[in-house]
Automatic annotation (TrEMBL):
Domain CheW-like per the UniProt entry, residue ranges: 430-559
Catalytic activity: ATP + protein L-histidine = ADP + protein N-phospho-L-histidine
Keywords: Kinase, Phosphoprotein, Transferase
Superkingdom of the source species: Bacteria
One Pfam match: CheW
Endpoints of the signal sequence: none
Phosphohistidine modified-residue sites: 46
Annotated spans, Disordered: 127-180
Name of the protein described by the UniProt record: histidine kinase
Organism: Geomonas propionica
Length: 559
């Protein structure tokens, strides 16, 4: 019997089981004796083994079967669920993931699955270390090995654990309070639907342009009604494209666990909002930025246990990852209760590195000082580790978030902790943008990156050092010319009024002067092909209602 037609379904289901197993392992480290979670882990490995056996993928069967046997020993009470068991199970998850990639690419596997199975078969827990004489508390598994999350956030209940993970993922995609079946749809079809919807948005803008020329009230009414229907269609298509955050959340749990173990710190990890849906195209682009933020929180934010106790804090630090939705915006926060950041220290480090002059440092607000961490090469770490301290990372995080049309903010209180907040659009396919005239071309800036527009009189411009500035909300804002940035002739303003928009670059507000502000438009973003895709500062292209093509600027990369 030809089983190749079922390969795609097998790969999808298997990866859902792997995600579920990894989450259960991390959750069990908090509550090793929780019977329902132990049973769910055993069933997950058993089901994965059965699926692989039906498809005749022998290497996957060997690994899954050894994991099942290990969990059987835990379930039967012959073996405690300790950090060693957790390490082996997570190693098995990684091993099967590589095997699935081999299956997907139809290439032979050379992984030593037999050696792994043998290690699981003979595993015995290490004898506990003797407690110091002055330690009155009972021994527990090392907390540095146990990055934990509350059961409600990571571990399905016993009844839910029996359901196939894929069904749970599909269930999470459904709007709350609605019932109905689910169906698998190829991602290519979803992308095609988005493209068609985007083309309709572009055509709507064209109709609006024609209606303005004809001055026909009936035509305007018809286009207005069509625009409402199109908005509803776009919203429904976007719902189909949404995937729950849990599709990538297991990576973060394991990343925090790994860093905590490597740095020897005690960490309690909490994750909330895993059911919140995000655009499929955005999810994968969030993995690296969030991973860096979490690793930084553990390695650079949380203090050593002894330092925490001397400061009157619990020995175990807490890192929280929270996802929430507010209408058409997604908010993601990474919060730690560590040492926090001191704005004065940030400014002093920037001045010492030559990033700022002492005079510029005095002008920075505390919030702007914290955003200095997003400047390339900036770091206050006292030593470089393989996790953080090289001055790279937060600048890439900020650039990646801005490229998604989002914003990044940092709040911190010395001795209390740090919170990094990301605000993102629900979709990156259709955006609202400010269209501007620069020389002979038009460009678009996502409105999420625009704080406000200003018409500035030349009399309001001040020269401070070598920079031109103007006052806005009692803050000195530097001026830049978008014409100069793009290498175009500078604009002329015979009436003495400079049109500009205010955005944020390198942690502080800046005014970008343009030739004209042409208003806000709803645009369908089209990705650029080679070689244009490699141009710094260009995030894509779009077509206006009159058929003119505009470049969508990525200000983070441009400035």
């Amino acid at each position: 019997m030809d089983m190749s037609q079922y390969k795609a379904l097998f790969l999808s289901e298997s990866r859902e089981y792997l995600r579920s197993i990894a989450e259960q392992v991390v959750a069990l480290e908090q509550s090793p004796g929780e019977r329902s979670a132990v049973d769910a882990l055993f069933r997950g490995a058993h089901s994965l083994k059965g699926m692989a056996a039906s498809m005749e993928y022998g290497d996957v069967v060997v690994v899954a079967h050894s994991m099942e046997d290990l969990m059987a020993r835990v379930r039967d009470g012959a073996l405690p669920f300790d950090p060693g068991v957790a390490d082996l199970l997570l190693e098995g998850v990684d091993l099967i993931d590589v095997l699935l990639q081999d299956v997907e690419q139809e290439r032979p596997s050379t992984l030593p699955t037999g050696d792994f199975a043998q290690r699981l078969a003979i595993y015995t827990p290490a004898p506990p270390k003797a407690a110091p004489a002055d330690q009155a508390e009972p021994q527990e598994p090392a907390a540095a090995d146990a990055v934990t999350a509350p059961h409600s956030a990571t571990a399905p209940a016993a009844a839910d654990a029996a359901a196939p993970p894929a069904a749970e993922a599909e269930k999470a995609k459904e709007p709350a309070g609605e019932a109905g079946g689910t169906v698998r749809v190829k991602t290519e079809l979803l992308d095609h639907l988005i493209n068609l919807t985007g083309e309709l948005v572009t055509n709507k803008q064209r109709l609006l342009t024609i209606a303005g020329e004809l001055a026909s009230p009936p035509l305007n009414d018809a286009i207005s009604e069509t625009a409402k229907l199109l908005r509803s269609l776009h919203d429904e298509v976007m719902k189909v494209r949404l995937m729950p955050f849990e599709a990538i959340s297991d990576r973060f749990q394991r990343s925090v666990r790994s860093v905590a173990k490597k740095s020897g710190k005690e960490i309690h990890f909490e994750l909330t909002g895993r059911e919140i849906g995000l655009d499929r195209g955005m999810l994968e682009q969030l993995v690296d930025p969030l991973n860096h933020m979490l690793r930084n929180a553990v390695d650079h934010g949380i203090e050593e246990s002894g330092d925490r106790e001397r400061a009157g804090k619990p020995a175990r630090g807490t890192v929280r990852l929270a996802v929430s939705r507010d209408r058409d915006r997604i908010q993601i926060t990474v919060r730690d209760d560590g040492r926090g950041m001191e704005p004065a220290t940030m400014i002093a480090a920037a001045v010492a590195k030559g990033i700022l002059t002492p005079e510029e440092g005095e002008l920075l607000s505390p919030r702007q000082a914290l955003m200095l961490s997003c400047i390339p090469g900036f770091s206050t770490a006292k030593e470089v580790t393989d996790i953080s301290g090289r001055g790279v990372g937060m600048d890439a995080v900020n650039a990646a978030i801005q490229k998604l049309g989002g914003t990044l903010g940092i709040e911190s209180e010395p001795g209390v902790g740090t919170t990094i907040s990301l605000r993102l659009p629900l979709t990156i396919a259709i955006i609202h943008a400010l269209v501007v005239q620069v020389g002979q071309v038009k460009a678009a800036i996502p409105v999420n990156a625009v704080q406000r527009t200003v018409e500035l009189s030349r009399r309001q411009i001040e020269n401070i050092g070598k920079r031109q500035m103007f006052q806005l909300d009692d803050e000195a804002i530097p001026l830049l010319s978008l014409n100069r940035v793009l290498g175009m002739p500078l604009g002329r303003f015979p009436d003495g009024i400079l049109p500009l928009f205010v955005t944020e670059a390198r942690g502080r507000r800046v005014g970008i002067v343009v030739d004209r502000l042409l208003g806000q438009h709803e645009l369908f973003v089209k990705q650029l092909g080679r070689p244009l895709a490699k141009m710094a500062g260009v995030a894509g292209g779009a077509t206006l209602g009159d058929g003119e093509i505009v470049a969508i600027l990525d200000l983070a990369g441009l400035l």
